[in-house]
Design a protein that fits this description.
577 residues; mainly beta; 7-stranded mixed β-sheet; 5-stranded mixed β-sheet; 36% strand
Length: 577
């Protein structure tokens, strides 16, 4: 019997209704300890780890991996990759996915973590439209691993416009001692119609493990990285003389910030409660892999790319002095116009590109990036903290030249009247049934195709969350536009193209126990099998996911799935030992 069937047989509802999770950050240590005694298999797990002193570590900065001209070993078999004849790889990358001894803080002992090239959560690729990419992931995880997390892996480029054979479908996994090749064509959506639409260019993406039943384990263990795409407008050069260039802060002033909560036992070792099906949340927050770092900044503009990868924590981002910052992109897509804001409510896996101008501060000033959102367990936000938690300290310590700009017009979005006529309206229902997470009343089955979507045809998805849990929903393969929330207008920061949509809990919305979001989506170019799921990845692992297939509308709808070497292995397919 597999893990999912076992949990359902035992009655997953007992875990939610009768047993509290052992990490409830709003409660006292004594209350938490009392609850631990009743939790399944966790009575000996300490609640609070050793104290750690803040602001003693500098913020680690992600370093883009240098591309190769070809793979070091056997050349990739390119026959299974869609559009490879039109977009053959120019840049090649190889990642050594391995276990390392890792330090979160000088006050804690080393922890065994996993990472692409041994960089837990900090691997980084810079990519460019017009330069297709091939990435080879070598699984060198320990074959003798014991404990939580799976050494099988499958890598998903989150929001990548890629064929299903490179999407990291949850059952397309490979084990230790093997590798798998992924083709990222760096093509613009709409290639089949108009050679690609620049209004749909992507920017801030990330990649992570998507192993069935173990996505939360493996991402928490460190299998995540950054993937940044540049183009002639968002060119990554603030001194770009190209008249189309937006000239955002670039180079050492363009910074990735990855926020991940952590929980340690009394010995300072990382712990994970896979049985808490609300969603696991820890009592510490790491920024770029370390606890409460500082970052020295100059008196000028910086671009920060914010990513909260989960497993379950939502964030409320704000600056400690209440100052405004400028939002320029969400989920890797530029907005039509910049938006001045002083706080952001971020669901798991949403990306937020903001610009902070430090020029108004004096040298010697200190400023904090805080989390103002209260979240007592994995159900979702429950309100605002009485005292925001400082996650990152900015130390203003120098002057620097600033050639960057923030234009008033960033990109032109497709107007709704110009969109293609809607052919299909779908109803999606997210709920908890007997302690298990379902979509449309079903537990995830990788062989069951919930939706068959025709390539190029416009659809509306009405997504309803039942109950007072928060669900950050992700749709693979194509961005969408949010039309409304419970029939009401959306906020300006949700007006761009997105791959994540927040279904908010009752405490945050005040709209009752049912919340419906309507969105417009159109799957262009690529065919095959894809997924949609809650990105509270504990919910995903406990079956809140569906498969949908994108099929060729011009040939009458078939085939449902292209010839995929991952599901039809051959001797020279993409997974090799």
């Amino acid at each position: 019997m597999d893990r999912r069937k076992m949990l359902k047989t035992l009655g997953g509802g007992a875990l939610l209704a009768g047993v509290a999770p052992y990490i409830i950050t709003s409660k006292t240590k004594e209350v938490q300890a009392a609850e631990v005694g009743g939790n399944i298999g966790l009575k000996d797990v300490p609640v609070i780890g050793p104290p750690t002193k803040p602001w003693v570590q500098a913020l680690p900065i992600t370093v883009p991996k240098k591309p190769q001209k070809k793979m070091k070993g056997k050349a990739p078999d390119t026959r299974g990759f869609q559009f490879y004849d039109k977009f053959p790889a120019v840049d090649f990358h190889e990642f050594d996915v391995k276990e390392v001894n890792y330090s979160f803080h000088p006050d804690l002992p080393l922890n065994k973590m996993w990472g692409y090239d041994g960089l837990p959560g900090l691997a980084h690729i810079n990519a460019y439209y017009g330069r297709p990419v091939m990435v080879r992931f070598h699984n060198n995880l320990p074959k003798n691993h014991k404990g939580w997390a799976s050494t099988n892996m499958t890598t998903h480029l989150h929001n990548g416009h890629t064929g299903s054979e490179s999407d990291g479908f949850t059952t397309d996994f490979h084990g230790p001692g093997t590798y798998r090749d992924h083709h990222y064509p760096q093509m613009l959506s709409g290639y089949n119609e108009m050679g690609g639409d620049w209004r749909e260019a992507l920017g801030t993406l990330w990649f992570h493990d998507h192993m069935m039943d173990f996505t939360s384990h493996n991402t928490y263990k460190g299998l995540a990285g950054l993937y940044t795409i540049y183009n002639e407008r968002d060119s990554g050069d603030e001194e770009d003389t190209n008249g189309k260039a937006l000239r955002f802060p670039s180079g050492k002033y363009d910074i990735n910030l990855v926020f991940a909560d952590r929980q340690f036992d009394k010995d300072g070792q990382l712990v994970f409660d896979a049985a808490d099906m609300n969603g696991f949340v820890g009592d510490r927050i790491a920024v770029n892999g370390v606890l409460q770092p500082f970052f020295k900044v100059a008196r000028r503009k910086y671009r920060f790319r914010l990513l909260p990868p989960g497993p379950a924590r939502w964030y409320g981002f704000r600056l400690s002095d209440g100052s405004n910052f400028t939002l320029i992109a969400t989920d890797g897509n530029l907005l039509e116009h910049p938006i001045e804001m002083n706080k952001i409510l971020a669901g798991v896996a949403e990306r937020w590109d903001i610009i902070i101008d430090f020029s108004k501060y004096k040298k010697g000033d200190k400023l904090y990036l805080e989390d103002y959102l209260e979240m007592v367990d994995g159900r979702g936000p429950t309100g605002t903290k009485k005292k925001p938690f400082p996650m990152l300290r900015f130390d203003i310590d120098s002057d620097a030249k600033d050639e960057s700009q923030i234009g008033q017009k960033l990109k032109r979005l497709i107007d709704y009247p110009d969109m293609h006529p809607v052919k299909v309206v779908r109803e999606m229902r997210l709920e908890n049934e007997d302690g298990m997470w379902t979509v449309n009343g079903q537990l995830f089955d990788p062989e069951h195709v919930e939706y068959t979507c025709k390539e190029g045809e416009a659809e509306i998805w009405n997504i309803t969350s039942l109950g007072d849990w928060g669900h950050p929903l992700h749709i693979h393969r194509e961005e969408f536009r949010i039309l409304s929330r419970d029939g009401k207008a959306i906020r300006p920061e949700e007006s761009g193209r997105k791959d994540m949509v927040k279904l908010l809990p009752i405490q945050e919305t005040g709209l009752g126990s049912q919340s419906t979001v309507s969105l417009y989506i159109r799957f262009n170019d690529m065919l095959g099998k894809y997924m949609s799921h809650c990105h509270n990845v504990v919910h995903e692992d406990h079956a809140m996911m569906i498969r949908f297939d994108v099929v060729d509308a011009k040939s009458g709808g078939g085939p449902a799935v292209i010839q995929d070497p991952a599901t039809k292995p051959r001797k020279d397919g993409p997974a090799h030992s």
